[in-house]
Amino acid sequence: MSEIPSLPSYEDITDALKKNKLGHHASQIHGLICGVICGTSEQNADSWKRLVFEGKKSKSIDVFQNLQDVSYQQMNEFSFEFSLLLPDEEIDINPRAEALGLWCQGFLTGLEQVKIPLVNRSPSEITEAINDIIEISQVNYGDIVDDDEDETAYFELVEYVRLAVLMIFHDLRSNRTTRSESSSLH
Question: Which CATH number fits the domain that encloses residue 98?
């Protein structure tokens, strides 16, 4: 396995979004990019750019491209280094929970952009994971209390989403490879 670089920081992505006057949240952008990557299994999948930049020229495309490249490498290597781009632990739990919900919304949007159905799927582990991510995306972060119990629940949800995304990426890629091989046999 090759050494995988780290994601750009949450602050770097937030700064790049502000610099480009884009009204998106850093976590949402990372979720979107990861959803597109999962849905295509391609390192250079760039359908997310149209949604992020909304036709504007980016002054800092390189930071977003780096976010995509590193995310792809981490997912492709099934790396334990793969993580969700979320605010630091020192931040109050409510903005972190909101960011997790936005990450999940972005991820689901990314899957939809590359035509991965989110509803009416046949029962499978992927369907269950997508349904769980849908529920997490609807979290009411205003009801969260900054205590040990909610902090533990937050970390468990982050870990669940992280592992679910890795599973979705590898299962969708495996399914695409299987379909491609069976269609080439006919």
Answer: 1.20.120.740
Concatenate the DSSP letters of all residues of 67-111 into one string. Answer: HHHHHHHHHHTT-TT-------TTS-HHHHHHHHHHHHHHHHHHH
21: left (phi over 0), alpha (psi -120 to 50) or beta: left
| CB-based contact 13:67 (threshold 8 Å) | yes
Domain count, the chain: 1
Q: What is the pTM of this model?
A: 0.89
**Could you tell me if residue 65 is inside a domain?**
yes
DSSP label of 8: P
Question: Could you read off the pLDDT of 62-103 as tens digits, one per residue?
Answer: 899 999 999 999 999 887 889 999 999 999 999 999 999 999
Q: Is residue 28 part of a domain?
A: yes
Per-residue pLDDT tens for 122-163?
788 889 999 999 999 998 877 788 788 989 999 999 999 999
Whether residue 4 is contained in a domain is answered as no
Give domain status of residue 158, yes or no.
yes
The alpha carbon dihedral of 158, 159, 162, 163 has a sign of: negative
Enumerate residues 6+ apart whose C-beta is below 8 A from 23: 17
Rounded to an integer, what distance in angstroms lies between the CA atom of residue 90 and that of residue 61? 28
